[in-house]
Amino acid sequence: MTSRRRPKARAVKAWAGRFAAPTAPLVEAFTSSLAVDRRLWPHDVRGSVAHVRGLVRARLLTAAEGKRLARGLGRVARELETDRFRFVAGDEDIHMAIERRLTELVGPVGGKLHTGRSRNDQVALDLRLWLRAECDATDARLRALQRALVVVAERHADAILPGYTHLQRAQPVLLAHHLLAYREMLARDRGRFADCRARGDELPLGAGALAGAGFAIDRAFLARALGFARVAANSIDAVADRDAAVEFLAAAAIAAVHLSRLGEEIVLWASEEFGFVELPDAFATGSSMMPQKKNPDVAELVRGKAGRVLGALVALLATLKGLPLAYNRDLQEDKAALFDAADTLARCLEILTVMLPALRFRTDRMASAADGLLLATDLADLLVERGLPFRQAHERVGRLVRICLARGTSLHDLDAATLAQHAPGVTPAIVRRLTPGASVARRRVVGGTAPAEVRRQLARAAREER
Ligand code: ARG
Questions:
Q1: In 326-435, which residue ranges form alpha helices assigned H by DSSP?
Q2: 328: CA distance to ligand 1 center in Å?
Q3: What's the pLDDT tens digit per position in 119-159?
Q4: Ligand 1 test: best mutation among 40, 120, 125, 242, most atoms within 8 Å of CB?
Q5: Helix, strand, coil % (nearest 5) of the chain?
Q6: Does the N-terminal or the C-terminal CB of the chain have fewer CB atoms within 10 Å?
Q7: Are strands 277-278 and 360-361 parallel, antiparallel or unpaired?
Q8: Lining residues, ligand 1, CB within 6 Å
Q9: Strand pairing of 230-231 and 202-203?
Q10: Does residue 425 surpass a pLDDT of 90?
């Protein structure tokens, strides 16, 4: 709330007629959602302005009354925008606060705004409008991170690092290829937010409390005015359903898990054991006790905050699962989960987008870690090219690996006699040609790690993120 002064005024309850006694202050505080839903005000005003136009079209308001209400809503919006809006005790949510202030400004005609409307369809509308905008904003943030990944990948187009399975060195891969894997995840995330936006692109307004407005309000007109693709087909569903919010949270949870995996990778890579990246000072923190420390807190928090986003999805699903149709006050809890998850995801995307290009990749360390026994598959592939079935080739190279491990040497140190015994036809000269560079180069399949293929993937990515 903006005002520090104790508000003198007190909002009159919309249901005062039915009640003989005032609401208990504790109940007022317990049921209020203003602190959370305040941010919906631009959508609430927009929805109300459209509703006013609908009421004028339905001849429930005169043109003059419509103009008065629309102007008044404009003034309320300006007060909210410039932080001059004075909330008063008993403003239980942003919807009631806006209507209360509107009536103060325009007089009794303000009481006509809610004609044919319930807070149930009003809040469902505001949420849809907010979700639509947030899907667009999230898409832009995801795209920015995709671009950052592509920029870093292009900068290190030739760098090779060990690819891992089971966190054991597996095969050499290009760093660009590895980074583009995250770009693919984000591409699917964008698809999920786009799906959520498209499926949620329906107008709830006109559903009333649940049965549909009792006046001939042109919902198709309202849908057009508010830029919705469709009118929600069932008024009961329109006020009871929160699928669009669930889908948003599911998409957010999956995206947050992707970012968490990237965060974890940065934590690992920044460790002295890996030493694959150096964190810029501006993106690291030190220890209050251990002078030598440089900690990857940003990456850790990105990993940690994913838990919060997952929690929000589960919280909303749990809120919904026992609810009979149609509106129940439990639904008010949707917004806290939704806003927190959206904000958390937004901050994680933003910080990774600036931190990634600032990381110093220690490509020398990566390259030396990508050499040695992780070329064993390439040796087996060589034997296959000489006619051996792969299973046999695997077994023979396995024996050679065992010999190397016992001797504490690498595949490149195997002598001619040992090779002749276990890998007939393969000479030390041939083994010497097995390098990380040769290993990646032969993986030219579509989606593989060969430089030519990764360049093609990079070009496609750059085209798509333009
Ligand atoms: N603040 C409420 C919400 O967010 C508004 C709807 C209240 N409706 C009602 N029938 N009590 O859901």
A1: 334-355, 363-369, 376-385, 390-407, 416-422, 428-432
A2: 8
A3: 999 999 999 999 999 999 999 999 999 999 999 999 999 99
A4: 120
A5: 65, 5, 30
A6: C
A7: antiparallel
A8: 33, 37, 93, 119-120, 123, 327, 329, 331-332
A9: parallel
A10: no
